[in-house]
Design goal:
Number of strands: 28
Strand content: 35-45%
Number of domains: 3
CATH class of the largest domain: Alpha Beta
CATH topology of the largest domain: FAD/NAD(P)-binding domain
Helix content: 10-25%
Oligomer: single chain
Bound molecules: flavin-adenine dinucleotide
Shape: globular
Distance between the termini: 62 Å
Radius of gyration: 22 Å
């Protein structure tokens, strides 16, 4: 079996992995990125719309343009990129980590590295995760799959579609289908508010007169060889009101009902996962419970903006570079908790006596909120006013954390 060595191994060649690899290599570390597909870029490659890189590059790039930027940075910095190679296993015990990789060109490889960065992205939840009654018939797609078929292979999934879920992929696909001449009958959303970014509601639904039915659910999918119609109903007190059930004729359904970080590898090697984010539990250096293994991007928690993915990847890279050089992070003695109106916070532990960066998501929609971070004694450690908050839009904050304690993050009305 062939063995390769590196200072830092990066698993996954999407925005997170490429950004991290560029930064590690630029810091002079021998960096090897492993990507299972035949080209790097991850999900960016199928996102041909613009809207990427506004914060980071001060430009509105398409997904492939953003991927090209970060790939060029990684290559110019000297990172080695191994394509068609899938990491099958991580042995995180010991100072040097061992990855077992299946490479289409080289067979099974062992890669030994001082530090590992997990950047495996996420995958879509599908109909099976929801338990929608009705037929198993043709014409049912995940929104991301339909995006790939149209944008990369030039294939149209159907002629009249219903989109279940108002996540960003579903919204972007509503516009994409309309541009391709596919009639989008409606987007239905189980929650009383949209799951996607406001700009996507305006640009992808309102501009195309596509109805968004909030607090509605699919009650059935029907058709013999292919979808012929779906039934939908409004939710009343959280239960579908069948008296108001409606039939909508369509030959295609796209599901845009959430993303799940790909952490099978992480779980198998003993990395602790957060049941809310489905990503690793990390400290403020973005290190998991296995020393020397770091995590960033959608595998850590699902992001809506690639700019935040790259910022997080920079931080994971800086930590991995320091680790590979023999430095060790300070003790993460602060326990971080998501309290009222927040679904989660990342990282889960922070270091006292320095500035820590936090990302979090609201669990509800609020106008004029205040993010408050308090100690167990009720002392306010940090606060920040926010014009509005919604689950679709990640909140970020960076502030000095003076002392070891438990910090509870809450969103208050103000
Ligand atoms: C449809 C859609 C539209 C979006 N629109 C916008 C937008 O307009 N603006 C914006 O800023 N952001 C947008 N985003 C968000 C942003 O693009 C993503 O959050 C970001 O690109 C995710 O990067 P990532 O590297 O974490 O994951 P990914 O891009 O998913 O990359 C992960 C990579 O890891 C590889 N991998 C996984 N497991 C293994 C393994 N075991 N071995 C080797 N390789 C592995 C995968 O093949 C993949 O290439 C959008 C996202 C989607 C899905």
């Amino acid at each position: 079996m062939k063995t390769r060595t590196a200072d830092i191994a990066v698993i996954g060649g999407g925005a997170a992995g490429l950004t991290a690899a560029a930064r590690c290599a630029a810091a002079g570390k021998k960096t090897l990125l492993i990507e299972r597909l035949s080209r790097p870029g991850g999900v960016l490659q199928q996102c041909i719309h613009s809207g990427f890189g506004i914060h980071r590059f001060n430009e509105e790039l398409t997904g492939p343009e953003y991927a090209h930027r970060v790939l060029t940075q990684a290559e110019e910095a000297g990172a080695e990129i191994l394509l068609n190679a899938t990491v099958m296993q991580i042995d995180g015990t010991g100072e040097v980590k061992t990855l077992t990789v299946y490479s289409r060109d080289e067979g099974v490889l062992l890669i030994r590295a001082r530090a590992v960065i997990l950047a495996m992205g996420c995958r879509e939840r599908c109909r099976g995760n929801l338990g929608i009654p009705g037929e198993r018939t043709a014409g049912i797609f995940n929104a991301g799959l339909a995006q790939k078929l149209i944008n990369e292979q030039g294939l149209l999934p159907g002629t009249r579609a219903v989109i279940a879920g108002s996540g960003d992929i579903g919204l972007i696909m509503a516009r994409r289908l309309s541009w391709c001449g596919v009639k989008v009958a409606c987007v239905i959303e189980i929650m009383p508010y949209p799951a996607g970014l406001s700009r996507n509601i305006a640009q992808c639904l309102e501009d195309f007169d596509i109805p968004l039915l909030l607090s509605h659910t699919l009650t059935g999918i029907y058709g013999k060889k292919r979808v012929e119609y779906v039934t939908i109903a409004p939710l009343v007190n959280g239960v579908p009101d069948l008296a108001q059930e409606k039939k909508i004729t369509c030959d295609t359904i796209l599901f845009s009902v959430g993303l799940v970080p790909e952490n099978e590898l992480s779980r198998a090697c003993g990395i602790e996962l957060d049941p809310v984010t489905n990503g690793p539990r990390v400290d403020s250096s973005l290190m998991t419970n296995i020393p020397g293994i770091f995590s960033c991007g959608n595998v850590l928690h699902v992001h809506d903006l690639v700019d935040f993915v790259s910022d997080e990847a920079d931080r994971a890279a800086d930590s991995a570079v320091a680790w590979a050089a023999g430095e060790r992070p300070g003790e993460a003695a602060i326990t971080v908790k998501a309290g009222k109106n927040l679904r989660y916070t990342v990282p889960h532990r922070a270091e006292a006596g320095k500035t820590n960066h936090f990302y979090m998501r609201a669990s509800t929609v609020m106008d004029k909120a205040e993010l408050r971070v308090t100690s167990p004694e009720g002392r306010i450690i940090f606060s920040k006013k926010l014009r509005y908050v919604k689950p679709a839009e990640m909140i970020s904050a960076a502030f000095p954390c003076p002392e070891e304690s438990t910090y509870t993050f809450t969103l208050e009305n103000c």
